[in-house]
Amino acid sequence: MSTVNIVNTKNESVGEIELNDAVFNREVKEYLLHEVVRMQRAAKRAGTACTKTRVEVRGGGRKPWRQKGTGRARAGTRTSPIWRGGGVTFGPKPRDYSFKVNKKVKKQAVSMALSARFQEGNLVVLDDFTMENIKTKDFVNTMKGLDIENGIIVSDTAGDNLLKSSRNVNGYKVISAEGLNVYDILLHKKIILVQPVIESLEKRLMA
Q: Domain spanning 2-46+100-206: which CATH class is it, in words?
């Protein structure tokens, strides 16, 4: 078991907590993280790029000019890909870029991403994080007090005040334990866990 300090929003130590090594301090396999991030990014691709083939473009029908005697190259149709306004050869068509990764592998990857942040010393545990009012300035000041310039806050009890106070500040994201994923962890330099969420994460990733 590894231990980490628990701090409050004023960056004062208020205790320690033990973390399950199987979730927060395991061996990190970069190839596995890469595979899961690639899967997440592929799933976000719209796949709506579309071009017309020579069959779909307007035109065609009769031969542009007779086969011989004009001094010009032979041409059979105006929809030829080598003509301006003709069809596109091997152009993109709407498609689904997503692919699947096993659930077990996804859980392992999330654990490895958390472990990477813990081993770097970039995992912070807060005893509580609630805001009385919707005020971006207060949120920014709290982050400055914690010395966090870029981070993802994981909390199952984040109210609307915290969500709305943070949403216009670049470099920060508030997310639930259920929604935590490899891409978001790796995208942010630090991960801030509100203490009650640790138990939820361990249950989810050990199941």
A: alpha beta
Q: Phi and psi at residue 66, in whole multiples of 5°?
A: -65, 160
Using one digit for the tens of pLDDT, what is the confidence trace for 40-64? 999 999 999 999 999 999 988 899 9
| Residue 130 confidence (pLDDT) above 70 | yes
Domain extent listing, the chain:
2-46+100-206, 51-91
Count Cβ neighbours within 10 Å for each residue of 76-89 and write b for 16 or more, e otherwise: ebbbbeeeeebbee
Cβ atoms 52, 87 nearer than 8 A: yes
What span, in angstroms and rounded, lies between the C-alpha atoms of 61 and 93?
Answer: 24
Dihedral sign (CA 165, 120, 128, 106): positive
Element (H, E) at 123: strand 123-126
**Percent of the chain at pLDDT above 70?**
100
Looking at the DSSP assignment, which residues form a beta bridge with residue 154? Answer: 175, 193
Among 201, 195, 199, 189, which residue's Cα sits nearest to residue 143? 189
Report phi then psi at 121, rounded to 5.
Answer: 80, 20
- Name the helix (H) or strand (E) containing 152: strand 151-154
> From the centroid of its chain, how far is CA 30?
16
